[in-house]
Amino acid sequence: MTHGIVSAPQPEAVEAGADALGKGGNAVDAAIACGLVQTAVDPQMCGIAGFGCMHLFLPGSGEHLLLDFQGRAPGGVRPDMWEDLIVKEAEDGFGFILKDYVNDVGYGAITTPMTLRAFDIALKRFGTMKMADLLEPAIHYAENGMIVRPHVNYFWNSDEGGGKAPHSMRLTENAAARKVYVKEDGNLHGLGEIVRNPDMAETYRRIARDGVDDFYSGAIAREIIADMESNGGLITAQDLESIEIDDMEPLWGEYRGLRISTNRPPGGGVMVIEMLNILENFDLQAMGHNSPDYIATVSEAMKIATVDKDVHVGDPRFVDVPLDRLTSKEYARECAARIKSGEKAHVPRYNPGGAESKDTTHVSTADEHGNCVALTHTLGMPSGVVTDGLGFMYNGAMAVFDPRPGRTGSLAPGKARFSAMCPSILFRGDEPFFVVGAPGATFITMGVLQAILNAVDFGMNAQEAVMAPRFSTTSDTIDISNRITRATQAELERRGYAVRRSPLSYHFAGVHALRKTDAGWDGGADPGRDGMAMSV
After folding, report:
1. pTM metric for this prediction
2. What is the average per-residue pLDDT within 262-270?
3. What's the rounded Cα separation, in Å, for the pair 340 and 359?
């Protein structure tokens, strides 16, 4: 590595990030270049009308912070507006299914579009390149076409089940979306086919020419609001104009002598630290990787953290989150003692249904100056809404709010819902050791946890750490990927666990990581997301 390294789920985006590094850009420039191309080549996983969190470690300038750009509920919402529409809660606790999908698909699903503003602020404060220049590769792919990769094809044609809207509905219900994603014969574009989005290309050219403010208070904003007003959308001009990106101090923890830096609520970093604190009380290496003892022990830590998240973790502007207790070593020892006694945690659900979607993306970058960036951004669950002439799809994050008033995740104007996004950096002393993050809804924290355990407890390199078979336990069922052995499954079932096998070999988040050793950086990209790691 001469200039830096990039890892992300989309090869086109990785190349754009590497190109920015090759031109003398820093890790922030590379992350934004990568992120913008992601919006063009993976437009249901992320977009300029999405939200996310960016973790920045910039030792040269003495900066270490997170830019928190969670989508917020529009100003016109009411806590009880959907109370009578509840069908059930998603099994993993990440969202509710309502009648007619009013919180999931369509104009009522959209929270404030944050991503473009966050990218602009990050570049102006910490980057060295201009937004207009970094938009050029994204414009190219929107104009000339994105290739439908295996993961894109899988998403478009899969059904989450459990009552969630089918993914194809997010591409076909809205006329402007149909224009992009549906062919003349009525079918979605297939694997290997090229999808062109000239409206997105033109919108990006307008932003490059007129600036990001045009999206939030100028001509593009007026088109957005006109569309919302014509179709019963909740987003108003005031919602767009009042968008702010928050600086967030890292949430710190420690695991086996390493320092962990991650995000604060409403993000999922608190869950990662809580689980690591609990697991520090066990000799995981002696158990053996993905053995029945290992999976049972880690699953119990996952369940405990999930219950605590459901009860306590939300937007700290609206909810008093007991961070000190949830991240304390003493509380972790209490939880570990319960696991050692044989107690099985129970994860309560309101009329359990299907699992939440995995509609997010991530990029990890590092440069020759020691800067590191972990950026996770998303549409949440894509709303399926495209404003005619603009090309990009809006987020659908309203689906995760609790429609029952008086709860940690209940609706309120300006409130952010919990997100499992947890872009994290582990330090050995003052030097970064492991930069990691993932897409995958509630699977995110579980995937990031296992990548950390793989690197720290089992000495895996970055690629091994993100490729090793994963599992996730966010309910009373242990979900396992298809590469975990049948013998292990049988033993877990003998111990009284419900186990559900996925047909996918790579599942439960799409983890991407960088690892620093004495020999330099190595990168890992989850094969299930078609991505790659590339140094330049």
Report:
1. 0.95
2. 97
3. 35
